[in-house]
Design goal:
heterodimer; A: about 375 residues; alpha+beta; Cytochrome Bc1 Complex, Chain D, domain 2; about 20% strand; B: about 550 residues; mainly alpha; Cytochrome C Oxidase, Chain A; globular
């Protein structure tokens, strides 16, 4: 399970699409830094020896800075380092741009940080704790949130990390390039067992990954879980297909720009979805009334992710998502307000289908 | 530069002009207040050092076998809080700056002597709060107090610690205010801005940051206390707050605070390199204005602490490029210091050894800073030991070595005694070697991926951690030595002359230690700064 720990190495394993570029930039920076460090060290030592004071020596003549091109020197040692560092800036920025733009075809996996564990949900329904199984060669996008404080999902072998914030969603993506097992660290200090909030990424071959997924969880996919929540909580009563209900249409809405009643607009993303469910009065869609009640305290963070995944899955603005049996008409509005909804997926502690042996190992 | 009278031969000086504890506790003399600061700042440094030793002891093995996780978290928090707020920030300004600025500009005292004394008492009050936290059970938030951990989850004494730092901040604000007014209003006749020692320029820039930045951290900590105590939502999403807002506010102060720590050190280095090369600093105006540039641009780079905190990538781009811009004035200084030695008369006395050590370590600290300014690089390195190593190269290799260089340089002036040349050189060497052994391996650990603030770590990181802990013991030895030989010198050291190093500058024109009024007659300045042709040759010790 564990990689053979090497006693002396200078680079972590290189296991993602980002690793070679980040290592390249690092090498460039090390070379430039070493050059300037050695240059300064050489100058100091050389001058200290060459111009060391000798007994009886008088006051040295002041150097006329103009005669030795003082101004040219000042400009040179400002502009040359600036030029070299602009390369670092541009190179680093281009890496960051690619890190912040997950490819469209990426597999979505949801991560919830909680002191002091990582809870992971796969769209297909599998759940794991402190372990993440991903296929080699496929783009993987993590959508992450925290139940309490700020955490940070860091995989050194992938050369990437991102903070995991309470109350909003952040993303991180990578394409694993090497089958193997790699560290997950929480990199943002989160209290007592911060250093125990660690785990393993298992990069599997496509075949092994399919096998692993097929073990499943017996719970159905996240979208299915979200759909049953959607119905339990009575969302479907108002949010009807086509947008003719009392609430805005959710079909095909995810990812679009939504016009608000105050004249501004907002992107329909994970954070907007979450905000609209917990704080419905914060942003009102143009043309609708402030009638939605808050669902704060009724939905766990993992339940929220399922709802989001369900709303995302409502791809076609008018049609029915294939394979799903969706309510096409509002059912009895009076009877099923949100408060009457059953709470099975709500604040109960998350049940975990796959507690692997590794959770014990980390503690 | 000398038009001041010859050194006064009287035995009366500021140290023995009055006696008794009351004469110290109620003094308005900037020199005595500086000495009082020196004593308490040293005590806090020692305490912070004890915590550092505990950290390195714990990390010598991968398992958490010395302390429990909660204890370890409190230990590194106290180390950070004490070192940053109670040592590094006041170290040079409140001791050397307090002592030297009036002397360097030919004034009798700072503009507001009573405010100066008040700032010491405020510092002490803030210190008492912090010691209270320490004795009653500590605080485990890290010195950065990130929310919502600090406001809703920490089980330490966050409110008391926050108030301690809040109070302490006013001491820095008052000191900065005093310096600015003094430098504007109380310069000796003929001492124009461009005849000022670079130490004064550096302190002027530092004071501006203190006045503009410190109120922000005070407000931020106040909001934090309100949220923790009264659950008023600013930062915790559970109360409708924004968790990242705290980081913006905190770093808006705390990044410039890094320059509060390093700029005074740079001022010291400019003086020391010039004196021990008997040469005017190369590019005087460039060094002076680079201090000002650092103070200005230092306020525009805070977002580089938030590259992975969900900040917009376009904000990240701006903060990244500005961070490169702020690196340039530092590069200018380093090259100018090296060029100052060119065709000079270089004497490797103890202050010079420390100063050369500073240049080496600060160069590494600055260059590794540009790693972290690069967006894609920072994503991998932030919150790892690379960051820990980087800021220790700047804070310890830079600020602390500058402080030690300055302390050894002006010790004869402050106390009128010389210290052991042999032991002080041994100390300088031990500090340099021990420091590099402690912190260089941490760069490698960081790139390997070891996160900071880890109590327990995977076994493959142990080799570099053992090296680091070994280096820390050498470093500790190098830092204990000065405490011994400097204390010893107070009674047994050779009597120092007025100008033992052959330096220019008005502070060397008066006796060592100076009289209470600093100068018999207010000096009149007629020449440029750093005119070594005016220094009497017999005072320059060469050998």
């Amino acid at each position: 399970m564990t990689m053979e720990p090497k006693s002396f190495q200078l680079f972590p394993e290189s296991a993602s699409n980002f690793a070679p570029t980040v290592d390249g930039l690092y090498t460039y920076m090390v070379v430039v830094s070493a050059f300037f460090s050695l240059l300064v060290a050489f100058l100091i030592i050389f001058f200290a020896i060459k111009y060391r004071a000798r007994p009886g020596q008088g006051v040295p003549k002041p150097v006329d800075e103009h005669s030795i091109g003082g101004m040219i020197l000042e400009i040179a040692w400002s502009v040359i380092p600036l030029g070299l560092s602009l390369v670092m800036f541009a190179w680093g920025a281009s890496i960051m741009f690619s890190e912040s733009r997950p490819p469209k075809d990426a597999i979505n996996i949801y991560v919830t940080g909680k002191r002091w564990m990582w809870k992971i949900q796969h769209m297909e329904g599998a759940r794991e704790i402190n372990e993440l199984h991903v296929p080699v060669g496929r783009n993987v996008r993590l959508t992450m949130t925290s139940e309490d404080v700020i955490h940070d999902f860091f995989v050194p072998a992938f050369r990437t990390k991102a903070d995991v914030l309470p109350g909003r969603y952040t993303t991180e993506w990578f394409r694993p390039t090497q089958v193997g097992t790699y560290h997950i660290f929480c990199a943002e200090y989160c209290g007592t067992k911060h250093s125990g909030m660690i785990g393993w990424v298992h990069v599997l071959s496509a075949e092994d990954y399919d096998k692993w997924l097929a073990q499943g969880s017996g719970e159905g996919s996240m979208a299915e879980g979200g759909e049953s929540l959607f119905n339990q909580l009575g969302c479907a009563n108002c949010h009807v297909k086509g947008g003719h209900g009392r609430a805005p249409n959710l079909y095909g809405a995810f990812g679009t720009k939504v016009d608000l009643s105050d004249g501004t607009s907002v992107r329909f993303d994970e954070s907007y979805t979450r905000e609209s469910i917990l704080y419905p009065q914060a942003k009102i869609v143009a043309g609708y009334d402030k009638i939605m009640p808050t669902f704060k305290g009724l939905i766990s963070d993992e339940g929220m992710l399922k709802l989001i995944e369900y709303i995302k899955s409502l791809g076609d603005p008018n049609g029915v998502v294939p394979g799903r049996n969706l309510p096409s008409e509002p059912s009895d509005i009076q009877k099923t307000g949100p408060m009457a909804a059953p709470m099975s997926e709500t604040k109960a502690p998350a049940t975990v289908s796959k507690t692997s042996a590794a959770t014990g190992k980390q503690q | 530069m000398i038009t001041a009278p010859a050194p006064v031969k009287e035995t009366k000086n500021y140290l023995n002009a009055q006696t008794g504890l009351k004469s110290w506790l109620l003094t308005g003399d900037h020199k005595r207040i500086a000495v009082m600061y020196l004593i308490v700042v040293t005590a806090f440094f020692a305490l912070g050092g004890v915590f550092a030793s505990l950290i390195r002891l714990e990390l010598a093995t991968p398992a958490g076998d010395l302390m429990e996780s909660n204890q370890y978290n409190k230990v590194f928090t106290m180390h950070g809080v004490l070192m940053v707020f109670f040592f590094l920030i006041p170290s040079i300004p409140a001791t050397l700056g307090n002592f030297l600025i009036p002397l360097m500009i030919g004034a009798k005292d700072l503009a507001f002597p009573k405010i100066n004394l008040l700032s010491w008492y405020i510092y002490m009050l803030g210190g008492v709060f912090t010691l209270y936290v320490l004795l009653t059970g500590g605080v485990d938030t890290g010195w950065t107090f990130y929310t919502p951990f600090s406001t809703s989850y920490s089980n330490g004494y966050v409110v008391a610690a926050g108030l301690g730092i809040f109070i302490n901040g006013f001491s820095a604000i008052l000191t900065g205010l005093n310096f600015i007014v003094t430098i504007h209003r109380m310069r000796a006749p003929g001492l124009t801005w461009f005849r000022l020692p670079l130490f004064v320029w550096a302190h002027y820039a530092t004071s501006a940051i203190m006045i503009l930045g410190t109120p922000v951290v005070a407000v931020t900590l106040f909001l934090l206390v309100l949220e923790r105590g009264l659950h008023i939502g600013f930062f915790d999403p559970a109360y409708g707050g924004d968790p990242v807002l705290f980081q913006h506010l905190f770093w808006f102060y705390s990044h410039p605070a890094v320059y509060i720590m390093i700029l005074p050190s740079m001022g010291v280095i400019s003086e020391v390199i010039s004196t021990f090369s008997s040469k005017k600093p190369f590019g005087y105006t460039f060094i002076a204005f680079s201090s000002v540039a650092i103070a200005v641009f230092g306020f525009l780079v805070w977002g580089h602490h938030l590259f992975v905190a969900g900040q917009s990538i376009y904000a990240g781009l701006v903060f990244s490029i500005l961070s490169y811009v702020v690196a340039i004035p530092s590069a200018i200084k380093v090259f100018n210091w090296a060029a100052t030695m060119y065709k000079g008369r270089v004497r490797l006395e103890t202050p010079m050894l420390y100063a050369l050590g500073f240049i080496g370590l600060f160069t590494v600290g600055g260059l590794t800073g540009i790693f972290l300014s690069s967006l894609g690089m920072d994503v991998h390195l932030t919150d790892t030991y690379f960051v820990v190593a980087h800021f220790h190269y700047v804070m310890v290799g830079g600020a602390l070595l500058g402080y030690l260089a300055g302390l050894h340089f002006w010790w004869p002036k402050i106390f009128g005694r010389m210290y052991s040349q042999v032991w002080s050189k041994v100390s300088a060497a031990l500090v340099f070697v021990g420091f590099n052994l402690t912190f260089f391996p941490q760069f490698l650990l960081g790139y390997m991926g070891m996160p900071r603030r880890y109590h327990v770590y995977p076994p493959e990181f142990q080799v570099f951690n053992v090296l680091s802990s070994a280096g820390a013991s050498v470093l500790a030895l190098g830092l204990i030595l000065p405490a011994i030989y400097l204390t010893w010198s107070l009674k047994h050291g050779a009597i120092a002359s007025a100008n033992p190093w052959g330096a220019t500058g008005l502070e060397w024109q008066t006796s060592s230690p100076p009289i209470s009024e600093n100068f018999e007659v207010t000096p009149v300045v007629t020449t440029e700064a750093y005119d070594y042709s005016t220094v009497p040759q017999e005072v320059v010790h060469v050998g």
